Amino acid sequence: MAISMTEAAANHIRRSLDGRGKGEGIRLGVRTTGCSGLAYVLEFVDELAVNEGFKFNNPNVRGECGCGESFNV
Q1: What is the mean pLDDT of residues 37-56?
Q2: N or C: which terminus of the chain has fewer CB atoms within 10 Å of its end residue's CB?
Q3: How many domains does the chain contain in total?
Q4: Residue 44: how many CB atoms within 10 A of its CB?
Q5: How far apart are CA 43 and CA 52, in angstroms?
Q6: What are phi and psi of 66, to 5 degrees?
Q7: Domain presence at residue 37
Q8: DSSP assigned state of 1
Q9: How many CB atoms lie under 10 A from the CB of residue 27?
């Protein structure tokens, strides 16, 4: 499965890593949660993974919950 991101998102990640002063990269995952079933999890990878916010656009999403935290495919 390929994952792509916009140049703006890649630049945002680079700036965030530079601003943090540490980090090896990012980890992307999907977990079961929320009203609709699934949510993206993005963590910066270093000694302690830190959750920071990003907006994902998945064209395969068939529905989202009312609070916007989870989705289903």
Answers
A1: 69
A2: N
A3: 1
A4: 19
A5: 7
A6: -65, -30
A7: yes
A8: -
A9: 11
**Predicted TM-score (pTM) of this structure:** 0.52
Closest CA to 13 of 36, 38, 43, 40: 43
Query: With contact defined as beta carbons under 8 Å apart, do 58 and 70 qualify?
Result: no
Q: Which amino acid is at 34?
A: G
Chain-centroid distance, C-alpha 17: 15
- Its domain, for residue 42, covers 7-72
Q: 39 in helix, strand or coil?
A: strand
Closest among 59, 45, 57, 42 to 5, alpha carbons compared: 57
Is 2 part of a structural domain of the chain? Answer: no
Helix (H, G, I), strand (E, B) or coil at 5: coil
At 14-32, the pLDDT tens digits run: 898 898 888 878 888 888 8
The pLDDT of residue 49: 42
Q: Give the type of residue at 18.
A: D
